[in-house]
C-alpha cells in the first residue's frame, strides 16, 4: 500500500523507491512539477527524507531541480534514447557474456524458470511484457556477479522502462521484443558467451528502433 514503509527501509529509501516507480510508470509524467509537500504527506515522510530522495533521483537523471522554480520530472527525448541505448548495448553485452561464463547449475535453473514464464506470457499485454522483460534482465544481471555493473545497468534499464511506458499507448504489442530473450537465455544456459553477448546487443538495438519509431 502506498504510504506504508516496509520493514528494513529507511524513510528516505521508501520515498526514493516510491517516487522512482511513479516516474517510471508515468504517474509522474515528464515535465510535471513535483509537489513535495503533498508527497511528504502521502508517503508519510519528512522534509529531510524527501530531499534525500529527490537528490538521488536527480543523480539518476529522472528529475531536475531548478533554483526558485522547483523540481521538474525529466523529459524523454530522442537524444536520451540514443545515449542510454549506446551505454546499454555495451553493458548488456558484457552482462550476458559474463553470465554465460559464470552461470552455476542453480543459476541455470533460475533462468529456465524465466524461459517457462516466457512460454506462458500473454501475447497482447504490453504492461505484462514490460514486467517480464525486467525480471529476465535482473536474472541475467544477478548471474554475471558484478555488483558495480549491475547497479549501473539497473539505473539505465529503469530509464529505458520509463521510455517504454511513455510510448506504450501508441505501440503495437511488444511481445516479439520480449520473446527475443528466449534465444538469449538459451545461450546463457548453454554457456555460449559470444552468442549471448551478440543477442543482448541486438536486443537493445531493437528496443531503440521500436521506441524511436513512436517518439
Can you describe this structure in just a few lines?
The chain has 215 residues and is mainly alpha-helical. The protein has helices at 11-24, 36-43, 47-59, 78-102, 105-119, 126-144, 147-167, 175-179, 181-190, 193-212, and strands at 63-66, 70-73. The chain has a two-stranded antiparallel sheet.
Description of the molecule:
This protein has helices spanning 11-24, 36-43, 47-59, 78-102, 105-119, 126-144, 147-167, 175-179, 181-190, 193-212; strands spanning 63-66, 70-73. It is mainly alpha-helical. It folds into two domains: 11-73, Winged helix-like DNA-binding domain superfamily/Winged helix DNA-binding domain (Arc Repressor Mutant, subunit A, Orthogonal Bundle); 78-212, GntR ligand-binding domain-like (Four Helix Bundle (Hemerythrin (Met), subunit A)), CATH 1.20.120.530. A two-stranded antiparallel ribbon has the order 1-2. Helix 1 (11-24) packs across helix 3, helix 4 packs antiparallel against helix 10 and helix 5 (105-119) packs antiparallel against helix 6 (126-144). The two termini are 33 Å apart. The mean pLDDT is 91. InterPro entries: GntR_C, TF_FadR/GntR_C, Tscrpt_reg_HTH_GntR, WH-like_DNA-bd_sf, WH_DNA-bd_sf. This is DNA-binding transcriptional regulator, GntR family.
Topology:
Blueprint: H1 11-24, H2 36-43, H3 47-59, E1 63-66, E2 70-73, H4 78-102, H5 105-119, H6 126-144, H7 147-167, H8 175-179, H9 181-190, H10 193-212
Antiparallel strand pairs: 1-2
Helix pairs in contact: 1-3, 4-6, 4-7, 4-9, 4-10, 5-6, 5-9, 6-7, 9-10
Amino acid at each position: 500500500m502506498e504510504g506504508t514503509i516496509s520493514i528494513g527501509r529507511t524513510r528516505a529509501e521508501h520515498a526514493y523507491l516510491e517516487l522512482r516507480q511513479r516516474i517510471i510508470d508515468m504517474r509522474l509524467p515528464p515535465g510535471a512539477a513535483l509537489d513535495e509537500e503533498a508527497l511528504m504527506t502521502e508517503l508519510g515522510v519528512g522534509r529531510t527524507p524527501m530531499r534525500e530522495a529527490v537528490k538521488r533521483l536527480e543523480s539518476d537523471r529522472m528529475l531536475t531541480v531548478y533554483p526558485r522554480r522547483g523540481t521538474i520530472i525529466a523529459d524523454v527525448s530522442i537524444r536520451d534514447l540514443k545515449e542510454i541505448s549506446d551505454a546499454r548495448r555495451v553493458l548488456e553485452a558484457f552482462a550476458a557474456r559474463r553470465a554465460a561464463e559464470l552461470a552455476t547449475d542453480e543459476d541455470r535453473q533460475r533462468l529456465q524458470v524465466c524461459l517457462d514464464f516466457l512460454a506462458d506470457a500473454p501475447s497482447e499485454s504490453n504492461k505484462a511484457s514490460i514486467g517480464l522483460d525486467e525480471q529476465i534482465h535482473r536474472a541475467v544481471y544477478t548471474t554475471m556477479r558484478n555488483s558495480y555493473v549491475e547497479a549501473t545497468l539497473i539505473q539505465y534499464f529503469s530509464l529505458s522502462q520509463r521510455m517504454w511506458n511513455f510510448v506504450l499507448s501508441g505501440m503495437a504489442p511488444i511481445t516479439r521484443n520480449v520473446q527475443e530473450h528466449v534465444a538469449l537465455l538459451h545461450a546463457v544456459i548453454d554457456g555460449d558467451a559470444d552468442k549471448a553477448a551478440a543477442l543482448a546487443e541486438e536486443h537493445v538495438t531493437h528496443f531503440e528502433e521500436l521506441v524511436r519509431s513512436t517518439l
